[in-house]
Structures are given as structure tokens and as C-alpha cells.
Amino acid sequence: MAAYIIRRLLLMIPTILGILLVAFAIVQFAPGGPIERIIAQLQGNDVSATSRIGGSPGGDLGAGAQSAGGDTGGTAKYRGAQGLDPEFIAELERQFGFDKPVHVRFADMVWNYIRFDFGESYFRDVKVIDLIAEKLPVSITLGLWTMLIAYTISIPLGVMKAVRDGTPFDVWTSAVIIVGYAIPGFLFAVLLIVLFAGGSYFDLFPLRGLTSDNWDELSFFGKVGDYLWHIILPVMSLVISAFATTTLLTKNSFLDEIRKHYVVTARAKGLGERQVLYGHVFRNAMLIVIAGFPGAFIGAFFTGSLLIETVFSLDGLGLLGFESIVNRDYAVVFATLYIFGLIGLIVTLLSDITYTLVDPRIDFEAR
């Protein structure tokens, strides 16, 4: 197993490099950039996605902290830059690193990221790593509670539905799950606000933040209660889709295993239903659920919470990533992409290791 883990760790290097390279190449063709945003602010205009003229692959876009740049050619390639001092534009390009060739800035970006040096945000005047650390508690809170609640409820419910397949219990729970899955999380969030957060009916929960303004004055149990009071609605909004997916996946996986010959043999030997279900079926059935864990993990922590963070005014990583893309803050965009990609690869490796714990017959060494 140790040799397999080492091979997987080594394979992470070209994988993360490939992720960065593809994203870096896409950025070169995307219109707009930090300099265009500054020019638009100077001109009193909003930044648009078509603010760049020319569109050459080696353009003027940044691609990461201390490693972004493009070819300089005066102010002609920047829409709205006419009339501005060319030396001012050149200074902006040097400030963002845009005066470097494409291969140089990509190499600089990789070297900096290896050392976890992400530089500073283009527009916030703060280190990217500090900015991410500041937003991380919100995403961790939403992600951990979502995964914990979804898996704690979904797996036992999925097993019960498989055992009682075709019964009224299975039918009505499936109807509830399908309806819940069909409702987008952000729409469910709006519904919860209307019903329970001062919308049109009850005013029971707060609308923004993870804590109240008087957090520091509360006792320990008061802080715990205040924290739970703030996260109930956003976590419920995120759980609804993850809950439905995991439940149906667990049910179908158990149904597939229950119908196999080894289960019939175990029952013929006189084993009880509980022994058959949890002693034989459980390990095999859970493999497919474990396989979907990395994607669910990343989605719950980073991508799935964007709209929920916006609706409930929670300043987390999802909202940070979206705002950074809109503002062309590529230092933050590429740093978060790198960190998320690395976490995703590590979680995938951990899920493979979990395979062997659930079912010792799986031998990755032989592969």
C-alpha cells in the first residue's frame, strides 16, 4: 500500500501542473484584465468582459500572484487608455508583472506556488493566503455540517429504503427526496428566508453572518447556541440536494448487492437479516458511496455554497472566488484553484485508502 500511495503522490505533480496550465491558457484568451479594470475606474466606467482589444494569446492578462503578464505595446491594446500617459500604463504592467513573456510568468507562478507563496491580491492590498484563511471558516462550517448531516441521515435511510423496496415507506420517502432534489438550493434558501427569517411569516433566524454582534460578550454555551442559530438555514439549504443524491445512491447500491448470490447463500446458512446486511452487504455496497465522496466533499466546501453564501450574506470562499473572477483578480483566482485542486487530489487518495479499510479484498498494490 505504501508504494501505491507514493505513486499517487507523485502523480499529483503533473496533475496539478496540468490544471494550472489549462486554466492559465484559458485566461490568455479571455477578454478584460486588471489593467482594464483600473483604466475603467479612472475613466469612471464599469469593467466589461470585452474591454480588451486585440485578443492575442500572449495578451495582457495576469495569471497568478507575482507571475502574470503579457507583451507591452503601448496603450493601443487597452480600450479606454487613449490619452493616458504610456509610462503610466507601462508602470501598471510592471506592477502586475505583465511585462514578462508567457512562459516566464507561468514558470514563476509554478515556482511560487510550490512554496505556497501566492503573493498579494491585485485590488485588496492583502496577501492571498491571508485572504483565503479569513474566508475559510465560513466554508468549513457550511461544508462540514452539510457532509455530516447528509451522510448521517442519507446512509441509514438509503439502507432502510433498500430493505423495504416497493413498500409504502419507500414510495413516499422517494417522492419527498425527488421533490427535494428538484428544488435548487438557492431557491429553497429564499423560501426559508420568506418563511422563517422575517420575510412574510416568522422572524426566527438571522439573515447574515455566522455570529451576532455581541458574540464576545456571550458565555460559552451562549456562543454555541448563537453559532447554531446562524447556520441552521444555510446548512438546510445545502443539505437538501446532497441528502437526496446520497440516499438514492445508497439505496440502489444496496439493492444491487442484496440480489447477488452470496447474499442468498448467507441467508441459506441461517444468518440473520442484520448479519447479512451489515456483515456482508454493507462493505460492498458502500464502495460506490465512497467513490462519490471526493466530488461531494469539494462541492460542499467550495462550489456548492456560492449562491447560499450570497443569499445569506456569508463571506466565504465561494463568494470570494466569484468576486475575484468578476474583478479579474487572478492572484486570488489561481491561488484558490491551486488549493482546491490540491485538496481534491488528496481527498481522492484518502477515499482510495478508505476502500481498503471497508473491503480488505481490494489491493491497489497489484494494480
TrEMBL record:
Q: Which InterPro entries match?
A: MetI-like, MetI-like_sf
- Which residue numbers delimit the ABC transmembrane type-1 domain? 136-351
List the membrane topology term(s): Multi-pass membrane protein
Q: Which UniProt keywords apply?
A: Cell inner membrane, Cell membrane, Membrane, Transmembrane, Transmembrane helix, Transport
Which gene produces this protein?
A: yejB
Q: Would the keyword Signal turn up in this protein's UniProt record?
A: no
Where does this protein chiefly localize? membrane
Gene source species? Pyruvatibacter mobilis
Q: Which GO terms describe its biological process?
A: microcin transport; transmembrane transport
Question: Would you tell me the protein name for this molecule?
Answer: Microcin C ABC transporter permease YejB
Q: Which PROSITE patterns match?
A: ABC_TM1 (PS50928)
What's this protein's family per the entry? Belongs to the binding-protein-dependent transport system permease family.
The residue ranges crossing the membrane are 9-30, 140-159, 171-197, 227-250, 285-312, 332-358
Where is the protein found, in the record's own terms?
Cell inner membrane; Cell membrane
SUPFAM superfamilies this protein is in?
MetI-like
Q: What's a GO cellular component annotated to this UniProt protein?
A: plasma membrane
